[in-house]
Structure formats: structure tokens, C-alpha cells
Amino acid sequence: MNTDINLLLHTDEESSEEKKRIKLFNLIAIASLMAVGLISLGIFILAQIINSPSVKKDQENTLRLTSQFQGRQTKLFVLNNRVENISKILEARRDLPKVASNLLEKVPSDLFIEDFEVNDKSVIIVGYSKSLFAIGEFINNLTDMVRKEEVIRSLILNSLALDLGRNVYQVSLTSGF
Q1: What is the phi-psi region of residue 128: left when phi exceeds 0, alpha when psi lies from -120 to 50, beta otherwise?
Q2: Which of 131, 144, 160, 158 lies closest to 102, judged by CA?
Q3: pLDDT single digits (tens) 93-145
Q4: Which residues is 6 bridged to in the sheet?
Q5: CB–CB of 158/173 below 8 Å?
């Protein structure tokens, strides 16, 4: 047989130095972990000592004072929301007195208005005159307003009739916004 065969591992210097380094790193890691734990524990204990009852009372007072204003803050929020919604409604709403005055400016002096109804969608005008010329002038004025889209966007002639009892011409118009 061969006597040169050795089944045991040879430990060389490199592997033994590497094992020493690994043990040293493990020792350093364990020591730093313990140091961080001790520092954390020290900070926690220090915070408990510093956080005295006076600080807790100050915190409670501050919370109580801020909670007193929560009701006011809620009311202020609701009021601001209402004001904002009202302003939106007012912006979208038509100025009906202005509409009425603009339409009445277009009425000739010979035309007399019997009924004038303004709502949010239309204006109904009923009038009479002894002359068809005044009624024609009024219709032309309103037609120009529709073309220019000044106040009204549509005009409907509901009726044009002769009232023999009063000897006048009656006109009924509906204009839409």
C-alpha cells in the first residue's frame, strides 16, 4: 500500500487567518448590537425621566384648548361652505330687474303694456296700441335683441288681434332667455 495517502485536512495558514477574521467580525457585530441596544434603552429611560408630569399637564392643556376651538372651526367651515354655494347661485341667477328694464326700454311711446310677467325662463308681454306701426316697431326692437343676444334669445308672437270694442290692436309676445 501507499503510505503517502493522508485523509486528514491540512490546515494552512490562510484558512486559519480567515477564520480568525470571521470570528473578529462576528464579535464586533455582537458588540455593536449590544451597544445599540444599551443606548436605546438609555434614551428610553432618559425620555421617561424627562417626560415629567408637568410636561404631561402642558400637553393635556394644549389638547383641551385646541378641542375648544373645534366647534368654532366646524361652524366656520359650514358658514364658508354656505357663502360659497350662495355666491355660485347668485352668479348663475339672472338679474330679472335688469332684464325687465332692458325690455321696457324697447317699448315705443304709442304702445301701452297691460301685462308684463318675468320668470326665470321667459318674459310674457301683453300690450295694446291704436297703431300697428308701434306694435311693428316693438317687435322689430325685440327681434334685434334676439339677433344680438342682448337679453333674450327667442321671441314668439302669441297673438295679434283687433279689439273692436276699444278700437285698439292687442299683441301678446313671449321671449325666452
Answers
A1: beta
A2: 144
A3: 777 788 888 888 888 988 999 998 888 788 899 999 998 999 999 999 999 98
A4: none
A5: yes
Angle among Cα 67, 71, 72 to the nearest 5 degrees reads 110
Domain identity same for 103 and 160: yes
Other CB atoms within 10 A of residue 99 CB? 17
Q: With CA atoms as reference, report the closest residue to 155 among 144, 146, 166, 167.
A: 146
Q: Which of 171, 155, 174 is closest to 110 using CA atoms?
A: 171
3-state SS assignment for residue 84: helix
CATH number at residue 149: 3.30.1360.100
Q: If you compute the radius of gyration of the chain from its CA atoms, what whole number of angstroms results?
A: 48
Helices within 6-158 (DSSP H only):
13-50, 53-92, 96-105, 132-148
Domain match, 80 and 108 both? no
**Contact between 150 and 105 (Cβ < 8 Å):** no
| pTM: predicted TM-score of the whole model, two decimal places | 0.50
Strand order in the sheet with 168-176: 112-118, 122-129, 168-176, 154-163
The answer to whether residue 15 sits within a structural domain is: no
